[in-house]
Amino acid sequence: MREQWSTKIGFILSSAGAAIGLGAIWKFPYMTGMNGGGAFFLLFIAFTLIIGLPLLIAEFVIGRGAQQEAISAYKKLAPGSGWSIIGRWGAIGAFILLSFYSVVGGWVLIYTVMSVTGSIIHPDTDYENLFGTITGSPLIALSGLGLFLAISVVIISLGVKDGIERASKVMMPLLFIFFIILVIRSVTFEGAAEGLAFFLQPDFSQITAEGVLYALGQSFFALAVGFSVMVTYSSYLEKNVSLPFSAASVSIMNIFVSLLAGLAIFPVVFSFGFEPAKGPGLLFMVLPAAFAQMPMGEVFLSLFLLLFLFAIFTSVFSMLEIITAAMTAGTNRSRTKVAWLTGLIVFIAGIPAALSANVLADFTIFGLTVFDASDFLVSNIMLPGGCFLIALFIGLRMNRNLMKKEFLSGSNLSASNFQIWFQIMRWLTPVTILIVFLYSLGFI
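Structure tokens predicted for Transporter:
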């Protein structure tokens, strides 16, 4: 008998945890800082609500409709066809994402331990050099990667109820509490208004064609759609849960956390004269220096890093889950053994990304390090591609009656609501993804 989520709130918090992680807390701020501030944020919100939310509902519908993990779900819903490639695409994408995602998780784990022990904030610390030392040391980078994956595997091997759901029920509320504390402190800095204006006042002259693609990719990355992660998650869901309501809850929480991230970070950045377009090292280089100038700075930094670590773990659970579920589906394989094997393989695959800032710093792919190339491939090619395929599957192949049944089950929505969603998925979603992609390449 397949496992199931024990409660509706457990499913929503776990799904939100899968969506909210490095995407909302690490990547969103630096992508916003590099792509026009408020204009990027506004585009991100629009793409999340108009494209991302319907796609999230679609993954929920597919997963609960099939009651199977991602690869098996497409096989069951479209037997004898090639649509199962969507599930395989997702598993491969999740694997690549996990390989570099866990590297950042290792950095955060190291920073968290250092902060809790009081060994980060000192008057003479060069925080940019500290980040370079941690990422530039093969031993430290690989140790962080290995330890982070080991902790993740321990939790995922416990299963849905005992592992993911129990952890998310603790981690997600703490995430919001810690963030609100940080926002309150951040906006009280002298000069914080400039950072708030940068983040909340759109200036579309700062947006490029590439920035539009990045905003679309960020909405997919932050919602964890495109790799059928949510297909696997919703396959454990009972029929009395409203899928549109659950998807809307996850989407709103995601936007809210992204808003909190901006409110927590940009006032601090501008108050202390840092560069918002700092890139992937924004949190690691800028925030410790800023927190060092606060009363109880080490405490605030520790809170932020713990929050960050919680968010990353909840996201990693979802990616490990889709791979582990695919490898154990229809077999007698031990979930624990498969989870540890998966963790080992991901560790090996993550070694090049972990070494991108040290021994492999001079090795590039199209001018990008292995870490940056993996990020670009996942965020701007594989995620939009997976979303495009899912939209085609909904519009062209999945049984309409089954879709309608799953869409309406557990809710008081009407058939007309279903029709609106279906038409969005059939026409607006794939066309928008295609237009944005072609626009970013200069073909439009």
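The chain has a mean pLDDT of 86.
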